Amino acid sequence: MTDRDTVVSTVRFTVPRPGQDVPAVVWRPAGPPAPGRPLVLLGHGGGMHKESPFFARLGRRLARELGYAALAIDLPLHGERTPPAERGMSPLQRREHLGLDAWRIRNAAATGQAVGDWQAALEAVRAQATRPGPVGYLGLSMGTRFGVPLLAAEPRIGAAVLGLFGLTESDPEAVFARAARQVTAPVLFLLQWDDQLFPRPDGLALFDQLGSPDKTLHASPGGHFHVPAAEIDAAVRFLGAHLGVEPG
Amino acid sequence: MTDRDTVVSTVRFTVPRPGQDVPAVVWRPAGPPAPGRPLVLLGHGGGMHKESPFFARLGRRLARELGYAALAIDLPLHGERTPPAERGMSPLQRREHLGLDAWRIRNAAATGQAVGDWQAALEAVRAQATRPGPVGYLGLSMGTRFGVPLLAAEPRIGAAVLGLFGLTESDPEAVFARAARQVTAPVLFLLQWDDQLFPRPDGLALFDQLGSPDKTLHASPGGHFHVPAAEIDAAVRFLGAHLGVEPG
Question: What is the count of residue pairs from A and B with beta carbons less than 8 Å apart?
Answer without folding.
Answer: 36
